[in-house]
Amino acid sequence: MITDHAIRRAQLYCFLADAFLYPAENWLEDLPALMPILHDLELADYLPPSFDHQLSELQSEHRRTFGLTGSLCYETEYGLPNEYRQSQELADIAGFYQAFGFKVGGRRRERPDHLATELEFLYVLALKEVYAMEQGIDEHVEVCIEARRAFLQDHIGRWIGLFAESLAKSADRVREPIDQPQPYVWLARLAAAFVQAEARRLGLSLDMRRLSEVQHTPIAAEISCETCPEIS
């Protein structure tokens, strides 16, 4: 059923949004419950490998993966020409959130363009879509679908593939040994595959740039070292 598929999408978006934040609980313990969801969403190629991390080990893995590369998690750090365009993109993201009553904040606060925040917004959209379906309000269902289409096209779908690729490269540089299963590398690949599958279902053609073609968004000169006086 269409409603069941929307519920599965909501469940996966919720799982991913929580898992990318610094772990307060061991989300690896939820993987058995995730298996049927991945099968139902035709993502069986991305079933998780065997992980045996305790919570402290998962927290250490998060620090190792994101501690020196935190900018990887933010949409507006990928390839914008200047900080002014960054502000425009952040405003556009905030506009999506405001339109659907989604407020950024809470106990674990992040920027609007953080991957976990964008995934949580898609989770909320999926829940609203399910509710509208159950109430038989077709126009509200269509509003949710159009918002999802636009957000995938204009935001998360444009950079999540870059995120997954960049994360894998960074993790390989800092991880020893690199032949052990890496939870956040797997998680990033799953998230990218899910978003790209969502786009295909909606008939979208995403802007799939190569990582080598993308530079980090420059920071403003007044807060960079470019304007620092030379020390003789």
Folded structure, characterized:
There is one protein chain. This protein is an all-alpha fold and 232 residues long. It has one domain: TorD-like (Orthogonal Bundle), CATH 1.10.3480.10. It is 58% helix and 0% strand. It is built from 7 helices and no strands. α1 packs across α2, α1 (2-19) packs antiparallel against α5 and α5 (115-135) packs antiparallel against α6 (138-174). 30% of the residues are buried. Residues 221-232 have low confidence and may be disordered.
Which key phrases capture this entry?
single chain, 232 residues, mainly alpha, TorD-like, 0% strand
Q: Mean of residue pLDDT? A: 86
Q: Enumerate how many helices there are, as a single number.
A: 7
One letter per element, helices H and strands E, the order comes to HHHHHHH
Structural class: mainly alpha
Shape: globular
Largest sheet entry: none
Task: Please tell me the total number of domains.
Answer: 1
Q: What are the SSEs and their pairings?
A:
Layout: H1 2-19, H2 31-40, H3 55-66, H4 83-99, H5 115-135, H6 138-174, H7 183-201
Helix pairs in contact: 1-2, 1-5, 5-6, 6-7
In a few lines, what is going on in this structure?
The chain has helices at residues 2-19, 31-40, 55-66, 83-99, 115-135, 138-174, 183-201. The chain is an all-alpha fold and 232 residues long.
